[in-house]
Design goal:
Length: 262
């Protein structure tokens, strides 16, 4: 079986302030000092990127710096937006694209998300592409149709050799911030289907290497069972990433699951 290093991201969303961002990132760095076997990324709000970067750098941490979003145009009259070049300039290594809150609260469409994924990967950065169905879509039995459509459009014109820098986050919308986590079996089934669809687009070898994270009410108490599933390669964490202790526990659970698979 292909060994994939799990990746765990802390998506702080529109939370924290300067003091909290500083304390939280220090807590995560210190808590993970002796943990390897998991790739960790912090996604602070834009105004705190440089602050978090300086904490990671000062402590020689290998934790990556991520941005929650980016605008696909290189520059120009796009008031309020942030370009990929600006993010790079601030030390960002990885960018979230297509998060469900951007899709459903801010109305981003698959084609726009595709433009972002292309621009991020073209710039040499890594990308986490988020997909996932709403409750109505799941109840109608359309989970696979929805995630397949999201993937197909978001990955249009993305060459296979860029996929090494792409992680997919399966985040069912009904599980985000609700406390209703997908069962390990349901999450595994969705991840397997996503991997198969990547195989259909790019072939089995690329599909076996692409990492697929789970996101949606992932907490210390349910992390190990989710990470034990064959096709779950870490997690994208919202609420629990705002506690350094909880986030560190989740990262350690991902590292332990990778050790158990060896
Ligand atoms: P919660 O962990 O708060 O459900 O959020 C998940 C998420 O949206 C991560 O991007």
């Amino acid at each position: 079986m292909t060994q994939r290093k799990p990746i765990v991201g802390g998506n702080w969303k529109m939370n924290t302030n300067r003091g909290v961002a500083s304390e939280l990132s220090r807590g995560v760095v210190d808590g993970l000092l002796h943990t390897d076997g998991v790739e960790t990324v912090l996604f602070p709000p834009f105004p705190y990127l440089l602050l978090v970067r300086s904490i990671l750098r000062d402590r020689g941490s290998s934790i990556k710096l991520g941005a929650q979003d980016a605008y696909p145009q290189p520059d120009g009259a796009f008031t309020g937006e942030v370009s990929i070049a600006m993010l790079k300039d601030c030390g960002v290594q990885i960018v979230l694209c297509g998060h469900s809150e951007r899709r459903h609260v801010l109305g981003e469409k698959d084609e726009f998300i595709n433009a972002k994924v292309r621009a991020v990967l073209e710039a040499g950065l890594e990308c986490i592409l988020c997909v996932g169905e709403t409750l109505d879509e799941r109840l109608a039995g359309h989970q696979d149709i929805v995630t397949t459509r999201q993937l197909k459009t978001a990955l249009a014109e993305i060459p296979g050799d860029w996929l090494a820098r792409l992680t997919i986050a399966y985040e069912p919308v009904w599980a985000i911030g609700t406390g209703k986590v997908a069962t390990p079996d349901d999450a595994q089934a969705a991840h397997k289907q996503i991997r198969e669809f990547v195989g259909h687009l790019y072939g089995g070898e690329i599909a076996s290497r692409v990492r697929i994270q789970y996101g949606g009410s992932l907490k210390p108490g349910n992390a190990a069972d989710l990470f034990a599933q064959d096709d779950i390669d870490g997690g994208l964490i919202g609420g629990a990433s705002l506690s350094a202790g909880d986030f560190v526990t989740i990262c350690k659970a991902a590292a332990a699951s990778a050790r158990a698979r060896r």
